[in-house]
Design brief:
By secondary structure, the protein is mostly beta strands. The protein contains 4 helices and 27 strands. The strands form 5 sheets. It has a 16-stranded mixed beta sheet that branches. Strands 5-10-9-6 form a 4-stranded antiparallel beta sheet. The longest helix is centred in the middle third of the chain and has 9 residues. It is elongated and about 95 Å long.
Length: about 375
């Protein structure tokens, strides 16, 4: 049977994943191989060097640069509190004095007799890396981090914002084509990951942030709502560093887009379970997709024996999503994979496939116009 590899999102009830948890620079690893860890557990720690502050002592004390060292009342290497005097000069036979105070808590790192400036180093910034998923540590990377393996249900989206978070999944709609309504938000949503249907808007997101919601998974969002929520136009490089207090995953695309029934059904079956999610998205080389991970707890989403997913490429019957106009966002299955090239209106010759949409309609599309929904 003819098949072709087309990148796509994965939606599967049972799979095995490994997530690497690595420090930005060398530190200490808190977990050992074989340890069972929870998403919120700290598996590695380090400290980033504090910010640097430059103080022009020569100007403040009206001294020549070569006289600055003799004006120090605290030696280089001293730990200072904000406002603490560390240099002083006297003038007019000692009747008047000028002082130089530390602008921050920190360490007096160096003084230059050429520039007359002092370097203050603020306290180091602690960095903790969490496990992110419930699972088992399968590998230690000395002074760097660990790898955590989890057996889980796994749902990828096509776009997201916000970093890693975790919480209990809570369903707010009854149907996959139902938009999220801010009236459905109440105190029970605090610290939850909310599941929606076709669309979310800026008013819902703003209220969700105010109520302490940790994440939202929904089919679509209007570009203007996203822009208004973020306060700026989003670039095409990588997301995940947005500091909005919430992570958002879009499973289908921009606009009002009914969530794929397979995705919605799986999320609905997982309601009440603890999930990990990340909105980090990278579209270019080294593609990264936003994700929801629900570790298995002795059950599977569908019940029965666990199986593990592996991709074998696009085949007849594969579930796909169209990612270009005029059928953007529509879902269907591969009905045929003709091996010969077809000429488009642009006169370019490309490989095509025949798609059968959910309503039974069939169309022929370039293979580059679709992505697989794997699982």
């Amino acid at each position: 049977m003819a098949h072709a590899y087309t990148p796509g999102v994965t939606v599967t009830a049972e799979t095995r994943l490994i997530r690497e948890r690595r420090l930005p620079l060398a530190g200490s690893v808190q977990a050992k191989k074989g340890d069972m860890v929870k998403a919120e557990d700290v598996v590695a720690r380090t400290e980033l060097p504090g910010n640097v502050q430059t103080i022009n002592i020569a100007n403040i004390l009206s001294l020549l640069p070569e006289d600055v060292e003799s004006a120090l009342v605290k030696p280089v290497g001293s730990v200072l509190k904000k406002g603490e005097v560390f240099a002083m000069s006297r003038s007019f036979f000692g009747l008047f004095k000028s002082t130089c105070k530390s602008p921050v808590d920190g360490t007096l790192e160096s003084v230059s007799n050429i520039t007359g400036q002092a370097i203050m180093r603020e306290p180091p910034i602690p960095v903790e890396v969490h496990a992110y998923v419930d699972g088992v540590v399968v590998e230690e990377m000395p002074r760097e981090g660990v790898k955590v393996e989890t057996e889980c249900s796994f749902i990828q989206g096509i776009f997201g914002i916000g970093g890693e978070t975790w919480g209990e999944l809570k369903l707010l709609v009854k149907r996959s084509d139902e938009p999220l309504d801010e009236k459905s938000l109440d105190a029970s949503c605090k610290d939850k990951l909310l599941i929606g249907g076709s669309k979310v808007d800026v008013s819902f997101l703003n209220k969700a942030v105010a109520m302490g919601v940790r994440g939202v998974v929904v089919g679509g969002i209007d570009d203007k709502d996203l822009r208004e929520f973020l306060g700026y136009d989003l670039g095409v490089a990588i997301t995940g560093s947005e500091e909005k207090g919430i992570s958002v995953i879009i499973t289908e695309g921009f606009g009002e887009m009914r969530m794929a029934e397979k995705t919605f059904s799986l999320l609905r079956s997982l309601e009440g379970r603890k999930a990990s999610m990340s909105g980090v998205t990278q579209i270019r080389a080294g593609v990264m997709r936003p994700e929801v991970i629900v570790a298995q707890d002795g059950r599977t989403a569908r019940g029965g024996e666990k199986t593990f997913f592996s991709s074998s490429g696009m085949e007849i019957g594969s579930s796909i999503r169209v990612i270009r106009e005029p059928y953007f966002g529509r879902l269907g299955k591969v009905a045929a994979l003709p091996p010969e090239l077809r000429q488009l209106e642009t006169e370019a010759k490309v490989r095509v496939l025949e798609v059968e949409f959910e309503n039974g309609e069939r169309v022929v599309l370039p293979r580059a116009n679709v992505e697989m929904i794997e699982g």
